[in-house]
Specification:
By secondary structure, the chain is α+β, with helices and mostly antiparallel strands. The protein is 42% helix and 19% strand. Strand 4 and strand 5 form a beta hairpin. The protein is elongated and about 75 Å long.
């Protein structure tokens, strides 16, 4: 299974922000849309990722106040990325190693979407459920006497 399989099911809705946007406004957008991250785009290219992890760190550093801080000042400027052809197992390992909850999917320099750790986990569980159903159906339909040892 590949990242393209997740994107096909998830859809292509992207939420982006400019790095010079006020952090407070970006946080408000994230809360209103009930999303955990925004892709930071500058001049049509990926500039970074903003997730609630960075926002929380900024809130703590500001003593509970975001003030006039800009997205650029707290974003992850070197986010972990993958390609549409990347295998899901590889994505799981990469996300676990970097403690990444969100990963932009890039095709060359084009942003194709963002997948979350939840998306990856759901895909794996759905695939395992399908495999379990197929195995149970196969066992249930096993012909009588086939493979039985008659010694």
């Amino acid at each position: 299974m590949k990242v393209t399989d997740i994107l096909r099911v998830k859809g292509s809705t992207l939420y982006t922000v400019n790095p010079d946007h006020l952090l407070a406004d970006a946080t408000k957008t994230m809360a209103e849309l009930d999303i955990g991250s925004l892709v930071v785009m500058e001049h049509g290219s990926l500039a970074g990722m903003l997730s609630f992890r960075e926002v929380i760190k900024a809130v703590v550093a500001g003593g509970g106040n975001l003030g006039d801080r800009r997205v650029r000042s707290v974003m992850d400027a070197a986010p972990l990325t993958c390609m549409p052809e990347t295998e899901i197992d590889d994505v799981r390992r990469m996300m676990l190693q970097r403690h990444a909850r969100y990963m932009p999917v890039m095709d060359q320099r084009t942003l194709m979407g963002v997948i979350s750790f939840y998306d990856v986990a759901k895909t794996v569980v759905d695939a395992q459920d399908f495999e379990n159903r197929m195995l149970k159906a196969y066992i249930r339909d096993w012909p009588e006497g086939a493979g039985a040892d008659k010694s």
